[in-house]
Amino acid sequence: MVTEYGIKFTKVCENLLRRGPLTLQLIVRYTELTPQQVKNSLLILIQHNCVQAFSYEQDGGLEDGPKSNTQYMALFNNILHRMRFSKFLEIMSREFDDKCKELLEGLLQHGRLTLKQMVERAKDLAERAKSRKKEGICENLVQESLVKLFTARYVERCPASEPVLAARNKEDTPAKKRGPKSARTAEESQTLEQRVLAAAAPMEAQRFSAITNNESAVGRETSMDDSPGMRVGAKRKYDASELHIEPAAEEEVILWRANFEEFIRCLRHKACIENVRERLDDGAATVLRAMLEATRSLENKVKTEKSVPLSLNNIFEEVMKSEEGRGMTLDLVRASLVQLGCSPSARGTDESYKIDLKKIIELAQNDEVESIVLKRYGRDAYRMFRLLSKNGRLVETDKIANTTFVEKKDAPKILYKLWKDEYLHMEKLVVAGARQSQFLLWKVNKPCLWKHVLDEMFHAALNLSQRVAYEREKEKEFLNLPVDKQVMSQEERLNRLKSVRIVLESSLLKLDDALMLFHDFEESSLLKLDDAIMLSHDL
Questions:
Q1: Is this entry keyworded Membrane (predicted)?
Q2: Cα angle for residues 129, 133, 138 (degrees, 5° grid)
Q3: Residue 108 contacts residue 116 (beta carbons within 8 Å)
Q4: How many C-beta atoms surround the C-beta of residue 123 within 10 A?
């Protein structure tokens, strides 16, 4: 059951997602909440990286008076990432120790934390674990873990609380742009979001900058954190940073948060590696993993199309670092590169290779959609769809039936079913003559189909998310029932409810793997889909 506070957050979030950036006054008008309720909701949404505030520079400059045009923008992707926290923690478990995992878990739970709050949280965890003889985590250990995480770019400094964009000009005005209104709105909103995030992001040198290993670093933090209401777990927003970096610098409050971008990059790499393993072999997957791990820090964006070039000798050295790669020879590495579709290019005196990651993602998308067709429509439909997907052009009905060995009387029915469900594009060809005849031509329109599949995935994820929430409520209700009204034993009933919930949560995580293929790993032209918006409410 959604709490009273959850309903308020949902109202604010829904209006920002559906209407785009809004001022505080407009949010109050659309949600019919009080100004204070809206402010509290926005503070918590900002604290958890779900909303970003920004403003436009006034025509006369910033010195003309205080800014009164602050707007708030919902960050849809960050909201969606909330159902991936377990995957982020799994990555942390594989690469770092438990202390780093605990630190990240705190950042995911509270959204943004200062170093002092991380230390307080670590001490609280150590005190609660004394019965298990677990040693306390001191400030130095927390700092060491934090340094490890932002060195690996899994943690970053928080963006500016309210970046100021240049005053809107004619280029930003949508009136002169042609095309459907909905398409223009999506394009402009995406461009605006990119501008806002770019303006808010710290400089690269500061975003992952080191902290001083000084015992009094926490003690020098501003007294803003000393009040009882500002401890870990409090839902609030800070406008500045918290850690003293240079002795001569003015003391400021530095807030840290999880860097979702780096985690999505890791998940994208993992998806590429597993797809190569399934389509090719372990050797090709080992070579690809070695190349991606060696160049991960050099990628300038998550959705990069090609990997950073590496020489054959460098690739071989990286392959040798892994246990599964130590048995590979230089010739086997070269053969795996050929399997991966890499052609050598001259780079000084050495040959260099780079992987077409975009092509691997596209092949994974094809496999995913073909799998859906197979499960939903059967083997004959799968063969016909696969043929059309590979051809990429219009094909006549009889030719499809002949090529795929499907009965000619069944082929039109199957094709029509796929077309009706928006999996195929159909065109009619009329041939004039003594006897006018009509032919049906079919093809797979991938851009349109990918949007449709993504919409279906969001709808399925919404249903699963709501069912998981329902099962959790059933567990709570059962615990509150009097013993005389319980039909079966409490332990038996709880085990049954937990089993159902675990299956549902596992299905949701698996569905999210497919969803990321179409939305997070490739450039997506997602509009404000209703199911996507509703899913964000449940997260």
A1: no
A2: 70
A3: no
A4: 15
